Records
---
Amino acid sequence: MNLIVAGSTGFVATEIIRQALSHPTVSSVVALGRREAAVPENVGPSAAKLKSVICNDFEHYSESVKNELAGADACIWTIAVTPGQLSKMPWEEAVKICRGYAIAGFETITQLPRPGVSKPFRFVYISGANTVQDPAQKPWVMGDYCLMRGEVEKRIFELAKESEGKVEASVAKPGMIDAQGRTGLLMGAVKTVMRTLIGLPKVNVEEISATLLDQAVNGLEKEVLLNEDLVRIGQRVLKSH
Ligand SMILES: NC(=O)c1ccc[n+]([C@@H]2O[C@H](COP(=O)([O-])OP(=O)(O)OC[C@H]3O[C@@H](n4cnc5c(N)ncnc54)[C@H](OP(=O)(O)O)[C@@H]3O)[C@@H](O)[C@H]2O)c1
């Protein structure tokens, strides 16, 4: 199967790409981003499966980018502004990246030609544990952000439904995504306190990546993958290697 990983230079996407390259069922990985994705270390000849595709406008895809994306069977969408980066840009810019890019990406990528393939296209979107689709449930921490990300989830499900079986969508809702050695001891302790205060669960980057890859390749177990699902499926997949 042919996989697109959108936001290919990011923290989670880098691990998804590393795992995808050694996955026997994945024959090609298109790394879609605004910059070239690095080839992971120690993947040997599997590196040949990777193709970086640079996109300059995530709201209006050029014909050349569309040509590179055509023929894919699934997309894992990781492009977003994470809460830690929100202060670096106006709110409207963050909404454009999180909502506008994801919806335009879904609409563009899922409509590209797939000659001779009748199976539904799988679109896997990473959101967050505290996002909400209902304004009445807006949380007290990062309320506008959580609601905006929830609106994207809702729209993705609506679009998948409107496709009448041509597209299947799944939304992953991880808590804090962790990786060994990612944060120093002090920052790690601060993050743990913050996470506990707002009741945020944790998943390892290898686990979430293994889960999302498994769902894209083998089929979607659930429409909404909670943090506990991401840990459970990820651990099962990683153990089977
Ligand atoms: N990390 C966590 O603990 C965590 C927890 C819960 C949910 N999530 C969600 O998981 C997903 C991936 O998170 P992550 O930690 O991997 O994030 P990340 O490392 O910040 O990666 C985000 C990706 O989006 C791209 N991007 C950002 N702004 C862009 C723009 N204006 N135009 C084009 N591309 C842009 C980045 O490109 P550049 O590399 O060029 O900047 C990068 O490839 C996000 O939806 C995030 O909200 C993350």
---
Amino acid sequence: MTLSPSVSENLYNRTLYTLRSSENKLCGICKQLNSESLRSSLIQDDLTQYHNFFRYEIESVEKLELRMAIVGTMKAGKSTILNAIMGYDLLPSRNTAMTTLPTEILFSQDTQQPQLILKSELINMINIIARQLQLKSNESNLQIRLRNEEDLIKMVYNMSANEPMTLTTTTNESSKIVGSLKYINDVVRISIMLNIENSIDSTWIPRLKVPLPHSFSIPQGEFIIIDTPGPNDNNLSSHLRQIVISELQKATLILVALEFIGSDSNDEAKLQEDIETIREYRNTDGPSHLYALVNKIDQRIEGKHNSVEQTKAAVAMKYKIPLTHVHEISAMNAILSYTFRQEYKELEKNSHVTYEILMRETKSYKMFMQQALGQTWEQATEYIDVNFLPNIADKLWKKSNYDSFLQNTLGIVSQQENVMKRLVSENLVWILVKNHCSKQ
Ligand SMILES: Nc1nc2c(ncn2[C@@H]2O[C@H](COP(=O)(O)OP(=O)(O)OP(=O)(O)O)[C@@H](O)[C@H]2O)c(=O)[nH]1
Ligand SMILES: [Mg+2]
């Protein structure tokens, strides 16, 4: 395997050597234990779990896989944050609970256009649930059972009048991708709220394959981020929660999304619990794999809200995350400025850009103008030359703080190296045995 010059081949080899020899040591311990104690199911379970741990870590290093996951209170903007990292509006977002199934995003060097990949098992399951939902529109209490959520109620009525959406194993067009993901997430959400059984397997989660965004470069290998629903989402079944937790346990880095104004204290407590679960599972590397993203800073009013320093210090303390790992961002500023800039660039290639053309041909125009220029954006078009808009987009991008976040948190090469250095420096068998003893 040829490695990118940025990841040291020496470190790569040492990491694999450490993992493989730790795995061998573990096998040695197993052999030494007499068969009587091995039969004790507790030890047997733990040993199987440790073997899986080594298999998983070895495979990840071999593939040079860097796997991150985003967690955070419901509506903190997790999906929007990831859309802004991808530079595409693909993950559905709205101001009421949206993400129900974790979604895997794979950044790939050889992909030109985003693609949604769905397992046929998931499609079959969604179709089975959809057929049952078609019969539900006449049920009493439907509104109450769907907690008066307009989107969901509308969807059930639509489904009873129309054929279910046709899902395909691969989808390429952005608007179809977001439509399919919204449909799948809502079908699962409604099925849980109406007690319709779903037996979704953890390996069926939707997968998005996207090109590398912005000015990213990654060494040879795979870079994956998992979007998740909020831990305070009361409409998740325990089965789905388990799928989310197992996705979090597989991740080497966790992004914790928060709103800068904070959330309900019960919701924050649930998030802290999830973070503790991840910490316990991965207590080989302390807090260094956690990063906090304090989102929606475009809504901060000076004098009314906490300052940047106060906010960061409070978050670092509450979630036990190093202060240097706390970043303030505005995902909204980032996605709108980025997508507007891209759309403007495309138009510029073929014609002289005017306000009319922008209004007619771009998707991001209105929201971008509102976000950048505020409530009076329509009047602003009278005194701002259209050619100046790309500069305004650049300024909005700067205000998103995404540059420093992308460099510091997603500095992919250095993160891959950090993960490997950690694996090399630690006596993994010892740590696993210690964990085992502390559990007894
Ligand atoms: N003003 C502002 N709004 C934002 C920002 N990021 C997200 N939002 C809005 O916040 C709401 C929730 O965003 P989502 O991305 O759906 O949040 P989420 O955390 O993925 O939500 P769930 O999947 O339901 O847990 C949406 O209405 C977004 O438009 C931001 O940076 N600024
Ligand atoms: Mg979401």
